């Protein structure tokens, strides 16, 4: 569907998925472009961020930190947007801001939560490498994982938006970094471009044995962002005093009911106990006030110095967001997934 | 079997239990009383401590912090013992010490690991209220659980050696304390004698609903020492930022293989994540150097001031240790379980 300046294309939640979402759970809707009232701005979406947490907002229960998306309403999400009309004294036409405009071409805002992006040369970075996903990596790894020189850090989804940054920051701390990714190409990227010490393909057989061989000194930090079989391979290798920041469990986001047995919880608890492991969940929204400034300063420096490399997986066209999102949950993205909705 | 001064009765591990241990997994053996060599003392066991961790040492795998008890060898365990012969310059005959003499009347020691108990009026307290079990409660609750004024603390095995102290220390911190125990008598004791705000009988139906009703503001600290169904009732009530010190999972010590499904791990991980929960295993052996002195000072004061009440479940006769231990794993003890092996 071509884009027209007088139409606001919106991707609505059409149905609550049972298990894995499909493109049929979304629908493309057209509405009039809204008109800002006094105190409002009209935002044009330039880039839309697609992130695994959105899967949870498709379920009726929503999450502890954000409510469910109502049926027949636009999917929510962070955007880089341009102010195209303004009746707000704080924002001028043409200004580019970080917003939460959702999966649509246009949105109104009263200015709350908008962050001006100034003259950023690559504004989509505000959604990834200088934004939420890299900030998630920074806080989870440094504040909870606390890797020390020479320790072994394992991170799954190693070329994803979060995992790729976790591994690179861990290397900067002097840790040994073992990645896990889906497919040989991603593994090569993790080692060759991101500087991981090694990276294992979770689609190849015998992940357990290969991970054990790759971690001869055990695992000191496991950055949990997937769950499932990777967690099972990691658990027996965790060292005494290991730290497990829990950032996501993408392998389970589609579970409609608890999966069949055996019950893996008792073994996990026994391991946690005997090895004095600290496991801690975190939601990045909690940490902006305290830690975003430090993150942004460090990350901007690392990027400028070429010490951290980012890879963006950019999709063109809002109408392709549903398929791209379905692919994200299947691990088909390669880097931070963003949808280019309009020219920046 | 009556006791004779020239015989060392020893309780040996006869078989490695499959699942729940029975008294047939132990056997009573008689040996000559050993004779100390130069540099050794001969210890007479006065009190033997029985603790759930011993179950793990009956399995061939042992634990991360202590090896398995070999078959046909005496069960290990902490004791209060009297020096009855000494060829060690540091210990005189008649001195009472904290030792690890195991399930037997007599043992030799080279003095390593012996702690003189001076003129303690109730030396068996060195095994419980002034010893390992209360120290476990102190470290787990204060250092990991970190209850704050007005928060809700839930502790299972509420009248046991650890749980009873957890709850009382939590009350001293100004927390609201909800206990869970097996049977109405224990629940009455927890409220009436130990000062818990309330205590629920886990043998009565609908624990989930009763726990939810007893925790209208949710749960901020869950001191995990049982696992199983209690954990399932606690999980949905944990608040954002809750802390879960993991001290033991007695409900699972008898598991020979992972229990059947459904698999409870994914739900646990999702809850941990969404509610930013910190879960941390600990082994009390790690903390003596740093924290025992503070514990001992605080606990001695609380006991002297009557602010903490201890209950000892005292069994008479070494020969009854196996049955008492089997009962401990079934929750039949009422207070810290000690075996009086000889007059103090």
TrEMBL record, chains A, B:
Limits of the Enoyl reductase (ER) domain: 21-339
Organism: Frateuria terrea
SUPFAM superfamilies per UniProt: GroES-like (SSF50129), NAD(P)-binding Rossmann-fold domains (SSF51735)
Name assigned to this protein: Enoyl reductase (ER) domain-containing protein
Keywords for this protein: Oxidoreductase
Family annotation (CDD domains): PGDH
Pfam families given in the database record: ADH_N_2 (PF16884), ADH_zinc_N (PF00107)
Stored Gene3D superfamilies: Medium-chain alcohol dehydrogenases, catalytic domain (3.90.180.10), NAD(P)-binding Rossmann-like Domain (3.40.50.720)
Keyword Oxidoreductase: yes
Keyword set includes Oxidoreductase: yes
GO-annotated molecular function: oxidoreductase activity, acting on the CH-CH group of donors, NAD or NADP as acceptor
């Amino acid at each position: 569907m071509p884009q027209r300046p007088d139409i606001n294309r919106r991707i609505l939640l059409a149905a609550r998925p049972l298990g894995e979402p499909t493109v049929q759970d979304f629908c493309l809707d057209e509405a009039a472009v809204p008109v800002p009232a006094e105190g409002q701005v009209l935002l044009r979406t330039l880039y839309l961020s697609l992130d695994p947490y959105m899967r949870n907002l498709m379920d009726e229960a929503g999450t502890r930190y954000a409510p469910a998306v109502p049926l027949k309403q636009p999917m929510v999400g962070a955007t880089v947007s341009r102010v195209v009309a303004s009746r707000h004294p704080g924002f001028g036409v043409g200004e580019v801001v970080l917003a939460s405009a959702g999966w649509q071409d246009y949105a109104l805002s009263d200015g709350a939560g908008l962050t001006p992006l100034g003259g950023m040369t690559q504004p989509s970075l505000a959604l990834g490498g200088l934004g939420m996903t890299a900030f998630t990596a920074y806080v989870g790894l440094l504040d909870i994982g606390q890797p020390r020189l020479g320790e072994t850090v394992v991170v799954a989804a190693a070329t994803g938006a979060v995992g790729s940054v976790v591994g690179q920051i861990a290397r900067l701390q002097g840790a040994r970094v073992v990645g896990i990714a889906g497919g040989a190409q991603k593994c090569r990227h993790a080692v060759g471009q991101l500087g991981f010490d090694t990276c294992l393909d979770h689609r190849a057989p015998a992940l357990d044995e290969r991970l054990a061989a790759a971690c001869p000194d055990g695992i000191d930090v496991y950055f949990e962002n997937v769950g499932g079989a990777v967690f099972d391979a990691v658990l027996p290798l965790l060292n005494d005093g290991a730290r497990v920041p829990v950032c996501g469990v993408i392998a389970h986001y589609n579970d409609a009911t608890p999966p069949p047995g055996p019950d893996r919880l008792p073994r996990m608890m026994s391991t946690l106990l005997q090895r004095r492991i600290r496991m801690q969940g975190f939601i990045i929204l909690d940490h902006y006030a305290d830690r975003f400034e430090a993150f942004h300063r460090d990350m901007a420096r690392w990027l400028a110095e070429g010490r951290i490399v980012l890879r963006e997986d950019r999709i063109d066209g809002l109408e392709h967001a549903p398929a791209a999102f379905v692919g994200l949950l299947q691990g088909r993205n390669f880097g931070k997934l963003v949808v280019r909705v309009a020219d920046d």
